[in-house]
Design brief:
The longest helix is centred in the first third of the chain and has 43 residues. By secondary structure, the chain is mainly α. The N and C termini lie far apart (172 Å).
């Protein structure tokens, strides 16, 4: 049996090789999965749904395997970070889950470097420890590792979800919405069971012309305008405007005008009185309208 330090050195080397190999395999599987998704989108676009449902299971299994390799890579990095605990004869509780998970999952992968690291771990901790890990009798193997190594057909809900995500990523209209056909539904109705509108028409009796002439149409009859305008507010808008015009100005003669009137003779004052009145009223001598003879005499006197 090789010394413990020599075995630990070999374990470190194999773990490093396994980590690099795991990363390469993950990148390769991711590239293949992209090509498979593109082919799935083409099948959905062509309407080959059943073929797409069968082939998408390979993509689901590839994704599960990639996730498993990521978990195993993390466990390998954990063992490299805690190499000091590997020097002990018994497995440390902090490394037990990682060591048993690697021993349990390594034979189910195609990574040779990981399988060689597993053999070194079995040699380090003994066959009984390895048997417990293989059978998982103490349930120390990680639950997520056990689930991802199960070979079960994927559920239909998961298959549909994968197809929907692939169709969404590549711009394919799937699943196609079912178009509703109201004409076919109307045709299925029999004559014995008329629809709601026809039944109401059959129940109502037609109105006579006299009743129609007496009836007054409702105010809300007819199509309503989509635009409604609010009436003006009485407090703001003047609904009944009233225009008030100003009267004639009340002109009063000044002191100069009164002095001039006193100096003029009485006949001139009488003749000029109608023009000075702002209201347009005529001042008549004696309160009577002069006749034609009197006016003729006045004109003759003015000519002299």
């Amino acid at each position: 049996m090789a010394p413990s330090s020599a075995v630990v050195g070999k374990i470190k080397v194999q773990l490093k090789l396994a980590i690099s190999r795991l990363r390469m395999v993950q990148q390769k599987d991711t590239a293949i999965a992209k090509q498979q998704r593109r082919s799935m989108a083409q099948l959905l676009e062509q309407g080959k749904i059943e073929s797409a449902r069968i082939r998408v299971e390979n993509i689901i299994r590839s994704d599960i395997t990639t996730e498993l390799l990521e978990i195993l890579e993390l466990y390998c990095e954990l063992l490299l970070a805690r190499t000091g605990l590997l020097e002990a004869k018994e497995c440390d509780p902090g490394l037990e889950e990682a060591v048993k998970s690697l021993i349990y999952a390594a034979p189910r992968t195609d990574i040779k470097e990981l399988q060689q690291a597993r053999q070194l771990l079995v040699e380090k901790y003994g066959k009984e420890f390895a048997l417990e890990a293989i059978e998982n009798s103490d349930n120390k193997v990680a639950e997520r590792v056990v689930k991802k190594l199960r070979v079960d057909p994927p559920e239909p809900e998961l298959v549909n979800l994968y197809l929907e995500e692939i169709a969404k990523a590549y711009g394919v209209a799937w699943p196609k919405k079912k178009e509703e056909l109201p004409a076919e539904d109307d045709g299925e109705d029999g004559d014995d069971s008329p629809s709601g509108g026809q039944a109401l028409k059959n129940l109502e009796e037609p109105l006579t012309t006299e009743e129609l002439s007496k009836a007054t149409p409702p105010r809300d009859l007819g199509p309503k305008s989509p635009v409604s305008i609010a009436p003006p507010s009485p407090s703001i808008d003047n609904l009944s405007p009233r225009v008030k015009l100003p009267g004639p100005p009340d002109l009063k003669p000044g002191s100069k005008m009164t002095g001039i009137k006193k100096q003029t003779p009485s006949t001139d004052a009488k003749s000029t009185a109608p023009n000075s009145d702002p209201g347009g009223k005529k001042n008549v001598v004696g309160g009577k309208i002069p006749d034609v003879d009197e006016l003729a005499k006045r004109f003759a006197a003015l000519k002299k």
